[in-house]
Predict the structure.
Amino acid sequence: MKKRIAIFASGSGSNAQKIMEHFKYSNDAEVALVLSNNADAYVLQRADNFEIPSHVFDRHDFYQTDEIVNLLKRLEIDLVVLAGFLWLIPDNLLKAFPNKIINIHPSLLPRHGGKGMYGDRVHKAVLEAGDDEHGITIHFVNENFDEGEVIYQARFRVEPTDTLEQLKFNGQQLEHLHYPKIIENLLKKYN
Ligand code: GRF
């Protein structure tokens, strides 16, 4: 049976797009569900385009009920992939999917991670710190923001002329290239 992936995203979902493209014709795995806390998130349109079902939930559903855990269990999800999802993962979900929830972060963790460090803020912090390298991190998710065990990092040199837009672009290219492959490799390790 194909392994089943659920993607959580709060916004545009360009990473989700790459993952859905990657697994569209795979015999080994499929994106079975896209979930969002934001009914206006563009990722929902992207899921529709792939004819992948989606589910929108609110804070109450997520933190005060088992609705999401039950849904993921009912759909026999093997791996939960966060792709631009901004809420902390509650305990019931962590316990239901031990070592089966991963995230991508647009910096070389532990640099520039933690609460409030997302989007342009991350790249701005890199420029302000004068870092000479930057990159992306794919990691397991735990009860804290951006702190689980690192699975993979990809890095690039920061040039003195680099703007925030350039850093963002370089990072996105790496995310789109690596996230689907890392997911594929992880799934191969599951029986
Ligand atoms: C990515 O930069 C990812 O690292 C971070 O959120 C961003 C999501 O972008 N977690 P997109 O919605 O996939 O375009």
